[in-house]
Amino acid sequence: MSFDLVFFGGTGDLTWRKLMPALFQAFRHGKLPPGGRILAVARDDRSDESYRAFIKERFVDVESSKRPSDDEFARFAELLHYRRMDLSRDEDYAGLKSWIDERGADTVVLYLATSPHLFPVICEKLGAAGLNTPQIRVVLEKPLGHDLASAQEINRVVRSVYSERQAFRIDHYLGKPSVQNLMALRFGNALFEPLWRRESIANIQITLAESLGVGTRGDFYDRTGALRDMIQNHALQLLTMIAMEPPSTGDADAIRDEKLKVLKSLKPFTPETVVRDVIRGQYRGGNVAGQAVPGYLDELKVPADSHTETFVALRTEVQNWRWAGVPFYLRTGKRLSARDAQIVVNFRQVPHPIFPGAHRANKLVIKLQPEDGLELHLLAAKGSGTNDALAPVSLDLDFDKVFQTDRVGAYERLLLDAIAGRLNLFVRSDEQEQAWRWVEPILDSWQRSRENGGEGPRGYAAGSWGPAAASALVARDSHAWSEEQ
């Protein structure tokens, strides 16, 4: 199958930091279909050779195990091409169409690695140039809009040019191997299904923690914040995969139908419940990994009076028969104690403990990053005498050690899926809009609070696990975050 893969924003950070290294790994693994061309388009005036040199220079920043040798890069670089393009000029889109048509590839993937506000104009001009034929797919990078109205407008324009099956809305968390194992855990094994419900599970926690700050992206981050950046997309997608009903088939729409049902079942927020069930924070100066780091308000390009949240913790429920009454806790933040993404399923205690120490409940930890694996925490007898007290033990499964292969990264998997036309790991427009619909009352409440001179985000020390109120949120239900258990 021949393919053309076109990157709009071909000299941008996302392209050279994430997409090109992912494509190189696919090339190294022999996964790229033969007969492919990779075209970068941007405003810079470059030749194919100068663009190849540009990418090679930036491969120095790739971790050593994934860095190409000169020979490997030379072979990969034969696929790379560059075209100067002004995204506002109709004639440039006509020129792009001519470049694509001259070969007539079986599949054409147009990846919009640009600012989302450019998505509508790019899609309209692609449609006007005739770059929307059935073999063409468009990939839309997150964030897709900054609120429900802007997301709906982007989707309206995209749907006017492309069918839903041609639109690939990417969320790179869905490409992580550990998330694939979440699907396998739930729907490939009979062991957990009888327990995967309110009668057995006390609460579920989703943590997406980062130890880094905003770095040089202060201006972007201050317009976005943690709720838009992480909760509305990554965290909610993980929640849907944990809570969804078994789909009837492995077809993309069967899976996405069940995810949408979860989003529609989430308990809606009101102004009162936002105050009670949502904690927002903003990091102050502190210490991370032995290094002193500045607070958010001291970061480059961040306004001194910013109310943008760098931390969010919230409590919600899925209001259906399987999950009624089970709290779901979502948490994300920057400059936290560790880089850690995980899902913790806390099971209920035994109904009648007969052993000393049996008060500690079982839990399943699904590790997403930096490790990729599963931990099952149980209780076992010590066997050290007549005392029948139980001690905690854990079964630890490290997928990297078990499979002992160079595993496919998130962007590598998603790029290959886009080329192959597999939609299972991409977000449908109704999913995405429903997620915005659910978070919008939180955004509105915070905006009204700011306009009325209300309290901004709570401060927390860099290197901590966020504001103390986040612990109190969970303790209110007599639970605790995983690191506090």
Question: Could you characterize what this model shows?
Answer:
The protein is α/β, with parallel strands linked by helices. The chain folds into two domains: 3-169, 3-Layer(aba) Sandwich (Rossmann fold); 174-409 and 428-484, Dihydrodipicolinate Reductase, domain 2, CATH 3.30.360. 36% of the residues lie in helices and 22% in strands. It is built from 14 helices and 17 strands. The chain has helices at 13-28, 48-58, 70-77, 90-101, 119-128, 148-161, 177-187, 218-243, 252-265, 271-277, 399-403, 410-420, 429-451, 468-475, and strands at residues 3-8, 36-42, 80-84, 107-112, 136-140, 167-169, 201-209, 278-284, 286-288, 291-293, 311-317, 327-333, 340-347, 363-369, 373-381, 390-398, 458-461. The protein has a nine-stranded mixed β-sheet with strand order 16-15-14-13-7-12-11-8-17, with helices on both faces. A six-stranded parallel β-sheet has the order 3-2-1-4-5-6, sandwiched between helices. It has a two-stranded antiparallel ribbon with strand order 9-10. β1, α1 and β2 form a beta-alpha-beta unit. α5 (119-128) packs parallel to α6. The radius of gyration is 24 Å and the shape is globular. 39% of the residues are buried. InterPro entries: G6P_DH, G6P_DH_C, G6P_DH_NAD-bd, NAD(P)-bd_dom_sf. It catalyses: D-glucose 6-phosphate + NADP(+) = 6-phospho-D-glucono-1,5-lactone + NADPH + H(+). The active site is at 234 (proton acceptor). Keywords: Carbohydrate metabolism, Glucose metabolism, NADP, Oxidoreductase. Residues 6-181 form the Glucose-6-phosphate dehydrogenase NAD-binding domain.
